[in-house]
Design a protein that fits this description.
The protein has 434 residues and is an alpha+beta fold. Among the domains are: 69 residues, Elongation Factor Tu (Ef-tu), domain 3; 75 residues, no CATH class; 58 residues, no CATH class; 91 residues, no CATH class. The chain is built from eight helices and 23 strands. The strands form eight sheets. Strands 6-1-2-5-4-3-7 form a seven-stranded antiparallel beta sheet. A three-stranded antiparallel beta sheet has the order 10-11-12, with no helix packed on it. A three-stranded antiparallel beta sheet has the order 13-14-15, with no helix packed on it. A hairpin with a 5-residue loop joins strand 8 and strand 9. Helix 6 crosses helix 8. The protein is elongated. The termini are far apart.
């Protein structure tokens, strides 16, 4: 634990300390770890202004709380943890690949094979095909010897294509079928087959009932950790508890996810929805939401003057999103990034002041790379219902402007009539306004 306690305020980036030494314990881009109400929060530090005051990179999203114990976590420590996780995953993948290579030799090799054990040592022995061939030869020899013992050379000659099973006393199973052999040997009937490890299917896999998968989910390629190029469907991903993850590992390509509706012959695309790796979604038909008043209640008109004031205070900007990391080296340093997308519109924090219901918090930590190449994590990212806010507040603001124009037109009309009366009284004739 670090010295002192801290006070946190919901939706505020300001942190106040009591007995703390922020300027000594922290620097920009470090992190604060604090437990509030049994929930652990990891908060990025933007700047320390004094020993007892600092600002966060993003506003704190938890409940307001004071007297909280806290721990300072340097930025380098977080990067080191990420690097160790990557190294452990790589080691596990190498072990799995070694297992697959060994089993490939055991099942498809011939003669004597050599396999590599987990400790790096090797073992040399017969392949499975050699064992089965040897056993089959011994069974045939035993049958021949049994016939020869009965003194008939003609019997030995007639053994070609022999299918009669050996008895148990002769070292056989007493049956020519697997089911009756199990009965003769006193073995229990076979249960439903249980497959473990990687199972390859070279043709079509036809399933006449449901298909289920464990916590790892379904994968089109690679291993349980989607660290190999491919598309994966998983469950309970990071930051999405109880949610379904569709993951695209872009490998050396550009990446992205596309949902398509095609015609019956798959010869043309009727419509598609594309998620670009930059974070931008595209659709040739646009994105719509239900707006039927019959499924709504508590409808309230937005005050036109309040909407006009709000729009005047909101920044209308263009921006570039920060790049996101694409690959890391073994030390956890970013070696390649995906360029951030270009954006246009309102800023969520501006809209949140006047219309907080239009802003949502995404509880899915995301890594970014700033302009100096520094990796940082952003939690509790704000998202904005841009289309709804733009339509509702712009429409209400237009009503306010229309009302002002009508009031001004009426005032101009009254003033014009008074001016004409004054000019008539003074005998002044002016040209009518065009």
């Amino acid at each position: 634990m670090s010295a002192g306690t801290i006070a946190l305020t919901n939706n505020s980036a300001n942190v106040t300390g009591t007995g703390t030494a922020f300027t000594t314990d922290l620097k920009a881009n470090d992190f604060i770890v604090v437990i509030v109400g049994g929930v652990t929060y990891t908060l990025g530090v933007k700047a320390t202004t004094s020993a007892t005051a600092l600002t966060l990179i993003t506003p704190y999203g938890g409940p307001t709380a004071t007297g909280n114990a806290w721990t300072a976590v340097p930025n380098a420590t977080l990067i080191g943890i990420t690097a160790q996780v990557a190294a452990d995953v790589a080691k596990a993948i190498r072990g799995l690949n070694l297992d697959k290579a060994n089993w490939q030799q055991v099942f498809s090799g011939t003669g004597t094979i050599t396999v590599t054990l987990p400790d790096g040592s090797t073992y040399t022995g017969p392949a499975w095909s050699s064992i089965t061939t040897s056993l089959a030869g011994k069974a045939d020899t035993a049958t021949v010897n049994n016939k020869a013992a009965k003194g008939s050379n003609s019997d030995i000659t007639s053994l070609t294509g022999l299918t009669t099973a050996l008895s148990i006393s002769q070292g056989g199973t007493g049956s020519s079928t697997a089911a009756t052999a199990r009965t003769a040997l006193g073995a229990a009937p076979l249960a439903s087959p249980q497959l473990q490890g990687n199972v390859g299917v070279t043709g079509n896999l036809v399933v006449n009932a449901g298909v289920t998968a464990g916590p790892a989910g379904f994968y089109t390629q690679g291993v349980n950790n989607p660290s190999v190029q491919g598309t994966y469907m998983g469950w309970n991903g990071t930051g999405v508890v109880g949610g379904t993850d569709i993951i695209n590992n872009q490998g050396g390509g550009s990446g992205g996810i596309r949902f398509r509706v095609v015609n019956a012959s798959n010869s043309s695309v009727i419509t598609d929805f594309t998620m670009l790796p930059s974070g931008v979604g595209q659709s040739n038909g646009g994105w719509t939401a239900t707006s039927d008043e019959r499924v709504k209640h508590h409808m309230q008109d937005i005050d036109p003057e309040e909407a006009l004031a709000a729009l005047a205070s909101w920044r209308t900007c263009s921006w570039d999103y920060y790049d996101v990391p694409r690959t890391f080296d073994e030390a956890g340093n970013v070696t390649a990034t995906v360029k951030g997308a270009k954006g246009f519109g309102f800023i969520a924090q501006d809209v949140q002041k006047d219309c907080p219901e239009a802003v949502t918090v995404t509880d899915n930590p995301q890594l970014y790379v700033d302009e100096d190449g520094v990796l940082f994590a952003n939690e509790d990212t704000l998202s904005l219902n841009t289309l709804g806010v733009s339509a509702a507040y712009s429409g209400a603001a237009i009503k306010a402007l229309k009302k002002r124009n009508e009031d001004q037109a009426e005032l101009i009309s009254v003033l014009s009539e008074r001016l004409i009366a004054i000019e008539s009284t003074l005998g002044i004739m002016s040209e009518p306004a065009s």
